[in-house]
Amino acid sequence: MKYGIDVPNFGPLGQARILADLAADAESADWDGFFIWDHMARKREFRDVADPWIALSAIAMRTTRVQIGAMITPLARRRPWKVARETATLDHLSNGRLIFGAGLGSVGGSQVEWENLGEETDLKRRGQMLDEGLAILAGLWRGQPFSYEGQHFHVEDTEFLPTPVQQPRIPVWIAGMWPHKLPFKRAVRWDGVFPIFEGDVLPQFKALGAFLNEIRVDDRPLDFIATGKTPGNDPAQGAEIVSGYAASGATWWLEDLEPTYFGQDWQTTWTVEAVRERILQGPPKS
């Protein structure tokens, strides 16, 4: 199992330099990955937002080993050819450490990130745009003349070079909210599953693992990502929490350092210093 950090790109962490510094801390503390959220705008107290791709570029320059990426990019609000160029460039900048996470986008931030900006709000259409966008990414990453005719996107005789460092492609993780099954049927066609749950997580994680085993059509490696919170000051308890997910097939544990990790009084407890302290305590390895 690998261990990573998962942090928002807004609020006190809404600066590319801060995120890059935290990524360097994570690498020094023996984490395997450093991942940031992909948000465009927030409301109320967390209005400072860092562009994820510029932040990831800074992160790539401050680290040499950890895998990096944005978890999760709503591909429906981005031009897929622009994302293909950005990801290939970032894969080179990081010497092949990028993972691309994709999904429909959060419903909770629909107004400020979708309606207010004139983006697509219908989830069914977003799903169509996601599938078309992923097909375009995979086609352009090949570095050969590529054409595509979809309902939402059109590409004609386009060749993108250089190809990514990672071959046959940059790994793609697909997010979905369980127990909705369609996102996970999509995910098994790619390289990883990034599930989101409500309520008691571990039983649902096990149920999803069983479902994935039922629907997989080949034996290619498939990352299965677990996210959660462990106490950095009690490594034994942290390892016990993670062990249940490892036994259920998880290949990654991402420590979710979002505001509620530090308590309900977000504006006083969720600080750069608090996030750094947890990072430096290290991963919950047994």
Q: In summary, what is this structure?
A:
With 286 residues, the protein is α/β, with parallel strands linked by helices.
What does this structure look like?
- The chain is an alpha/beta fold and 286 residues long.
- It has one domain: Luciferase-like domain (TIM Barrel).
- The protein is built from ten helices and eleven strands.
- The protein has helices spanning 16-28, 52-62, 80-93, 110-115, 123-141, 182-187, 201-215, 235-247, 266-269, 272-280; strands spanning 2-7, 33-36, 67-70, 73-74, 100-103, 146-149, 154-158, 172-177, 192-196, 223-228, 252-256.
- The protein has a nine-stranded parallel sheet. A two-stranded antiparallel ribbon has the order 6-7.
- The protein is globular, with a radius of gyration of 18 Å.
- The protein starts with a strand and ends in a 6-residue tail after the last helix.
Assembly state of the chains shown = single chain
Going by CATH, the architecture would be: Alpha-Beta Barrel
Uncertain parts: none
How many E strands?
Answer: 11
Any idea of the CATH topology? TIM Barrel
The percent range for strand residues is: 15-25%
General shape: globular
Proportion of helical residues? 25-40%
At the fourth level of CATH, the homologous superfamily is: Luciferase-like domain
Please state the CA-atom Rg, rounded to the nearest Å.
18 Å
Specify the structural class. Answer: alpha/beta
Q: Figure out the total of helices.
A: 10
